[in-house]
Amino acid sequence: MSCLKPERLNMVHKFFKARTSTILSQNPRDDSRHPPPARSERRGRRNLLPLIHHAETSFCPCCASDAKHGLPETMSRDLPSSALEIRGLTKRFDRLAVDRLDLTVRAGEFYALLGPNGAGKTTTLRMVAGLLRPDAGSISVGGIDALVDPVAAKQIMAWVSDEPMIYDKLTPLEYLEFVAGLWGCDPVLSERSARDLLGSLGLEPHQNERCEGFSKGMRQKVALAGALVHDPRLIILDEPLTGLDAVSARHVKGLLQDRVRSGCTVIITTHILEVAERMADRIGVISSGRLVAEGTLAELRRQNGKGDSSLEDMFVALVEAEAAAA
Ligand SMILES: Nc1ncnc2c1ncn2[C@@H]1O[C@H](COP(=O)(O)OP(=O)(O)OP(=O)(O)O)[C@@H](O)[C@H]1O
Ligand SMILES: [Mg+2]
Fold it and tell me: pTM of the prediction?
């Protein structure tokens, strides 16, 4: 992988700092859980990591490298049988967004979280990713209490927002190099991983172009590659297929299926019910911040007494029943 020139690296560092202070000033309520690093920590490439963790990003500090995999030790270990366990999770804005939610996602499964607009999916996942503080409840990521040790939890997961943020002045390859460097990944292994990811996502012809000229879908794919470059065991994606053309969507779906085959856990939210129907091992339906149905497609059909109905039919029936009961 081409090395970033010092002046380019400086430019990115400045960008991170500016972005971090903007975010801190926008989210003062969440500061106590992730206190900003001491002034003495704010120098040098590795020392940016606490700032970045503190900000709204998908990365966090990393520690000593694992010589075998080039990854921090906590990132390369296997998850226990539950990849994610949420208990009593609650978040209120003006009104209740997530309402005493219980949710378990097993290690190695492809889980689709569905729900109507405003159901609380993004809010739930943002709490899991450490970007929002819950009012109540617990979150365990691979056995790690994400509210007590958010950094350790982030080390084994990737979060791809529905509004991905990348750095326009970098090329995809530079961006992935930068992210892998933040994680402390072995440069040789991460270069291979970055090139594989860009190839799988159809971005290879653009890997040396600056992202500033990229379309929305191309940016989404760069953000996805950035989230996967450190080889996370739990991958959480908020509407990853929205805005992608059919070829790009196939690239992304293929990549996610490969990750599940290699033992990772994938959680996605989507409004494309066909994706959930075809790809998910289990499906959860959220309405008004509560889990109202969960299971395999066959189980959902049995639970709803609808032998051969489509997921769309069941989804509409469930959501309408919830709305009528509210
Ligand atoms: N930062 C915020 N401030 C105030 N209210 C918020 C905020 N974020 C989300 N909400 C509210 O919380 C509720 C749940 O929103 P959320 O974004 O989690 O829904 P969603 O299920 O992801 O919906 P969609 O399918 O449209 O993405 C909504 O009523 C929304 O208006
Ligand atoms: Mg959402």
Answer: 0.79
Please report where in the chains the tokens 């009961």 appear, as a residue: 325
Judge if the beta carbon of residue 115 lies within 6 A of ligand 1.
Answer: yes
**Four-point Cα dihedral 7, 13, 15, 20, nearest 10:** -170
Tokens 């729900």 sit on residue: 115
Ligand 1 mean position, distance from CA 131 (Å):
14
87 pairs with which residues across the strands?
A: 138
**CATH fold label, 75-156+268-325:** Rossmann fold (3.40.50)
For residue 69, CA distances in Å to 169, 185, 231, 294 come to 30, 8, 10, 36
**pLDDT score at 49:** 43
Q: Per DSSP, which regions of 171-275 are E strands?
A: 234-238, 265-269
- Given a cut of 50, whether residue 113 has pLDDT beyond it is yes
- For every residue of 258-286, DSSP letters joined together read HHHHTT-EEEEE-S-HHHHHHH-SEEEEE
pLDDT of residue 306: 67
* CA–CA distance, 141 with 158 (Å, rounded to integer): 11
Q: Is the CB of 120 under 6 A from ligand 1?
A: yes
Probe ligand 1: pick from 96, 121, 269, max atoms within 8 Å of CB? 121
End-to-end CA distance of the chain: 55
Measure 191 CA to ligand 1 centroid, in angstroms. 37
Q: What is the pLDDT of residues 249-269, one digit of tens each?
A: 998 999 999 999 999 999 999
pLDDT in tens, 187-221: 898 899 999 999 999 999 999 999 999 998 899 99
